[in-house]
């Protein structure tokens, strides 16, 4: 096959035509193209009237023309416009506008071009011009896509650039540093975004699809197939079970092996961390289950009872019970503390390949070679349901985070989604060309990952059932897939003896400010509306300029997820509540921590300032509400009454009443001065009600609710307070 450039003029020669063109002309041309809403750039530039208009605009920027004589200036401008037009015509018909120049096949030609243009700043500016015109002329999209790839490869500084509405396809932006760029309304399709840095970038109404993401790490150490992989709860350690009879513990960041546990006399088919991360369970074809101390690597216990291979092990959410599924057709429940068998669940007529607890620990799912899925009541040991539908062995089952959906992977090459309550099949996901060995939900429940004998990993949209991405790299069967706790990384274990980590960046977004490295749980506007504060699972708080979308500051201090942020009425102080059980007060101007308020014994989900700014209220997973003196940082009061997590707290406009919403399905009112609950029998109760509105999915008038102890069995996640005089809403949402 002939080289790409043999049929057409050499690409380096084409770019050479504009090596002396003043780069300011590109800006003027772009400005006019956008102003005139042009779609055919070449046709526009060939028109005599348009040429004269451009000439006039460029001549008005006289400071950019070095020649003194006006006629000479005009001659230069005309020649430059002609050169730009000719280059665009040549590029449009060139392979540069048809092929992916980031591919291996075209690597030699790309490097040759880079070598010839790397020292010419005007050609580099022209490449950026080509990127921008993808937002105008769809016939030059591949040309612009190859241009941005070359710019990234050359490490040209693209930070803070405005790439609004550009359209990029079929290329690689591997390792691109695009900090604080504006990509609003951009369209990316089939683009490799591995290692891309979008911190502080503006991504409003983007349409990005079929994005490609490369592996982050590849681990070597086992001498035979990887059968199972599992992240530790903190995401720092990965455990692997192998056919070489050993278990490996790996450092996720470095890829180095931390320990190798070799006690089993057969293949280690399954590994699972306890919820606190201190214990690892492993199941083997030597018919034993072993419990390991993760820190020391020592065996803590050996559990015997099964009469055949142990195919799957899983801890209950509280860590007290371990379940195992075996080729002996049985499921067994074990008491982790004493190492004794608690129960044996019979029902399957063939090997049990996968077991999984629901998130509340009350239901157990099992998948079997008998082609069925069964749901079990953990307390009674009784079978609750039998889900039939697969036409092949069921190798893997996994509950969604909310416990309402069960996913299953089978030898029939399909994945199925089931309604746990009804036992009915909700969806069938087809795409794999061979057995599906493993399925795993992302922490948010929106994405499902699957690993298959076809060597691929696939990501699925749980709501639509559509395939979002296909991750290739393994050279043999993928036996295990697992999301990291933050959902950003996927680990896979394969018969090719490798573990691979994949960066999972999913989906479309309407508005996004990149900077946080994990889930954003809370946002709050400053009183003047100019600043937005955000709290995140990455333990940080960030302050954003609302007008520009740029990050103004990053506040570090919390040691765990920040669930709630709230500005003081004067806008000078920011309060934050966290999973680290603390509340922190921050100076908005300096970004420094002013105070740390300790007292809650569990996650702080909500914080809210009183209207005068002197008192802060907080709601927690410890079921309590606490009132704090903002000046001294001391706890003023502890309000008890809720029987479950308090998700939201909000002051009335006069500051005398506090409302709280809880997972116990009730809303309660509190007298702030007297530090006691206001009951429905109190004479002022109805007057107090009218100051508040409640948010479920949409706003609802307070008059619709008369029984605040049980509002349609709805968990109260947000309360809003309305001040009719100042027409200000105060809101805290979780």
TrEMBL record:
<protein>
    <recommendedName>
        <fullName>WD-40 repeat protein</fullName>
    </recommendedName>
</protein>
<dbReference type="InterPro" id="IPR001680">
    <property type="entry name" value="WD40_rpt"/>
</dbReference>
<dbReference type="InterPro" id="IPR018391">
    <property type="entry name" value="PQQ_b-propeller_rpt"/>
</dbReference>
<feature type="repeat" description="WD">
    <location>
        <begin position="261"/>
        <end position="302"/>
    </location>
</feature>
<dbReference type="Pfam" id="PF00805">
    <property type="entry name" value="Pentapeptide"/>
</dbReference>
<feature type="repeat" description="WD">
    <location>
        <begin position="597"/>
        <end position="638"/>
    </location>
</feature>
<feature type="repeat" description="WD">
    <location>
        <begin position="471"/>
        <end position="512"/>
    </location>
</feature>
<feature type="repeat" description="WD">
    <location>
        <begin position="555"/>
        <end position="596"/>
    </location>
</feature>
<dbReference type="InterPro" id="IPR019775">
    <property type="entry name" value="WD40_repeat_CS"/>
</dbReference>
<feature type="repeat" description="WD">
    <location>
        <begin position="513"/>
        <end position="554"/>
    </location>
</feature>
<feature type="repeat" description="WD">
    <location>
        <begin position="219"/>
        <end position="260"/>
    </location>
</feature>
<dbReference type="GO" id="GO:1990234">
    <property type="term" value="C:transferase complex"/>
</dbReference>
<dbReference type="Pfam" id="PF00400">
    <property type="entry name" value="WD40"/>
</dbReference>
<keyword id="KW-0853">WD repeat</keyword>
<feature type="repeat" description="WD">
    <location>
        <begin position="303"/>
        <end position="344"/>
    </location>
</feature>
<dbReference type="Pfam" id="PF25173">
    <property type="entry name" value="Beta-prop_WDR3_1st"/>
</dbReference>
<feature type="repeat" description="WD">
    <location>
        <begin position="387"/>
        <end position="428"/>
    </location>
</feature>
<feature type="repeat" description="WD">
    <location>
        <begin position="429"/>
        <end position="470"/>
    </location>
</feature>
<dbReference type="InterPro" id="IPR001646">
    <property type="entry name" value="5peptide_repeat"/>
</dbReference>
<keyword id="KW-0677">Repeat</keyword>
<feature type="repeat" description="WD">
    <location>
        <begin position="345"/>
        <end position="386"/>
    </location>
</feature>
<feature type="repeat" description="WD">
    <location>
        <begin position="639"/>
        <end position="680"/>
    </location>
</feature>
């Amino acid at each position: 096959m002939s080289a790409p450039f043999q049929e057409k003029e050499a690409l380096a020669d084409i770019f050479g035509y504009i090596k002396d063109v003043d780069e300011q002309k590109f800006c003027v041309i772009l400005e006019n193209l956008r102003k005139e809403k042009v779609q055919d750039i070449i046709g526009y530039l060939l028109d005599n009237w348009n040429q004269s208009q451009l000439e006039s605009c460029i001549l008005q920027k006289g400071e950019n023309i070095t020649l003194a004589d006006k006629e000479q200036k005009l001659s230069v401008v005309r020649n430059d416009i002609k050169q730009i037009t000719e280059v665009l015509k040549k590029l449009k018909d060139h392979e540069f506008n048809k092929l992916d120049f980031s591919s291996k096949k075209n690597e030699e030609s790309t490097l040759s071009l880079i070598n010839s243009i790397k020292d010419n700043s005007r050609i580099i500016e022209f490449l950026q011009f080509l990127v921008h015109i993808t937002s105008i002329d769809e016939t030059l999209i591949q040309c612009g896509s190859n241009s941005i790839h070359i710019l990234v490869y050359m490490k040209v500084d693209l930070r803070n650039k405005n790439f609004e509405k550009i359209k990029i396809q079929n290329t690689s932006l591997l390792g691109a540093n695009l900090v604080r760029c504006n990509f609003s309304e951009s369209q990316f399709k089939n683009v490799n975004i591995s290692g891309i840095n979008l911190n502080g970038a503006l991504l409003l109404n983007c349409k990005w699809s079929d994005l490609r993401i490369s592996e982050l790490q590849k681990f070597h150490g086992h001498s035979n197939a990887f059968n199972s992989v599992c992240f530790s709860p903190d995401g720092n350690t990965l455990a692997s079970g192998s056919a070489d009879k050993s278990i490996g513990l790996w450092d996720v960041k470095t890829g180095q092996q931390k320990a190798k546990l070799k006690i089993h006399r057969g293949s280690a088919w399954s590994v699972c961390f306890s919820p606190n991360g201190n214990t690892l369970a492993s199941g083997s074809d030597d018919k034993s289950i072993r419990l390991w101390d993760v820190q020391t690597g020592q065996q803590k216990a050996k559990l015997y009872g099964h009469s055949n291979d142990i195919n799957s092990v899983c801890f209950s959410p509280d860590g007290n019970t371990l379940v195992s599924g075996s080729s002996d057709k049985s499921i067994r429940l074990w008491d982790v503390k004493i190492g004794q068998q608690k129960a044996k669940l019979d029902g399957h007529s063939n090997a049990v390949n996968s077991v999984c607890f629901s998130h509340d620990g009350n239901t157990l799912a099992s998948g079997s070679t008998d082609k069925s899925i069964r749901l079990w009541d953990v307390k009674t040991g009784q079978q609750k349901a039998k889900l039939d539908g697969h036409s092949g062995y069921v190798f893997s089952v996994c509950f969604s985070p909310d416990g309402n959906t069960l996913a299953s992977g089978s030898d029939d090459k399909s994945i199925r989604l089931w309604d746990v309550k009804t036992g009915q099949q909700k969806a069938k996901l087809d795409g794999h060309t061979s057995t599906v060995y493993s399925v795993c939900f992302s922490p948010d429940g929106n994405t499902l990952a699957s690993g298959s004998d076809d060597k691929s990993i696939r990501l699925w949209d749980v709501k639509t059932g559509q395939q979002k991405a296909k991750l290739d790299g393994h050279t043999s069967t993928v036996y295990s897939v697992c999301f990291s706790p933050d959902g950003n990384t996927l680990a896979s274990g394969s018969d090719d003896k490798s573990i691979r980590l994949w960066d999972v960046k999913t989906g479309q977004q309407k508005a996004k400010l990149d900077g946080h490295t994990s889930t954003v749980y809370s946002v709050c506007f400053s009183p003047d509306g100019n600043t937005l504060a955000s709290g995140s699972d990455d333990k940080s708080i960030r302050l954003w300029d609302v007008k520009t979308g740029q990050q103004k500051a990053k506040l570090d201090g919390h040691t765990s997820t920040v669930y709630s942020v709230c500005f003081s009425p004067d806008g000078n102080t920011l309060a934050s509540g966290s999973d680290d059980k603390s509340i922190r007060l921050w100076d908005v101007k300096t970004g420094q921590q002013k105070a740390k308020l300790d007292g809650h014994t569990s996650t702080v989900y909500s914080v809210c300032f009183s209207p005068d700014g002197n008192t802060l209220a907080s709601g927690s997973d410890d079921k309590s509400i606490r009132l704090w003196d903002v000046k001294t940082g001391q706890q003023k009061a502890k309000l008890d009454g809720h029987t479950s997590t308090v998700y939201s707290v909000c002051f009335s406009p006069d500051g005398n009443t506090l409302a709280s919403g809880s997972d116990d399905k009730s809303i309660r009112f509190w007298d702030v001065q007297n530090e006691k609950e206001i009951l429905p029998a109190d004479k002022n109760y109805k007057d107090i009600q009218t100051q508040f509105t409640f948010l479920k999915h949409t706003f609802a008038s307070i008059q619709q609710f008369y029984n605040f102890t049980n509002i349609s069995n709805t968990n109260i996640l947000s309360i809003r307070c309305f001040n009719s005089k100042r027409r200000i809403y105060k809101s805290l949402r979780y």
